[in-house]
Amino acid sequence: MAYLLALVATPGADSLAAQLATEAQRVAVRNDVDVVTLAELDTLPGYTHDLDTEDARPLIANQLRRSALEADGVLLFADEGTEVPAQAENVIAWLAHPGSGPAPAIEGKPVAVITAGPGEVVNQNLADRLRRAGAEVVADGVSITGSWSDPATVTRLGDTVVAVASSAS
Question: CA 163, CA 153: separation in Å to the nearest integer?
């Protein structure tokens, strides 16, 4: 069974991105994939080199990197809008720097960017940032606008989860 890490990079437990991540967990089980969401990303401080040291690095940053390293792949969820959410930029910044490791935690990992809402501007921007950080973006441009119960939405979400899990194998 593949293990994927879900990162909800939009603040608020009731955000559309958080709801979409929950639905992805349900869809993943039906596809023999385990999706685990890392909680408390809203407590992740803004990335700076000064904070990224053994003595200063916050626990949540260590958890984020360790979880990404242990996962077979990553699903990054964000709400679609006119700008990249600051929290999404911050999550990518922490994953893009190696910290005390030999390489960034996201390097070579299969990743999907999934946004909740219309349009794909933010989605493509996030995918490009992840590619520059060394991630293998296997699904970008996945903007979910339909109802979670809509069969087409469920199928699209399931296909994305399977694409990341298959790329990890």
Answer: 15
Predicted confidence at residue 119, as pLDDT, reads 62
Look at residue 10 and give its three-state secondary structure: coil
What is the spatial distance between Cα 130 and Cα 88, in angstroms, rounded to a whole number? 10
Place of tokens 């709400």: 79
**Residue 169 pLDDT exceeds 70:** no
Taking Cα atoms as reference points, which of 15, 18, 7, 33 lies closest to residue 161? 33
pLDDT band at 79 (very low <50, low <70, confident <90, very high): confident
Distance of CA 50 to the CA centre of its chain: 24
How far from each other are the two terminal CA atoms of the chain, in whole angstroms?
10
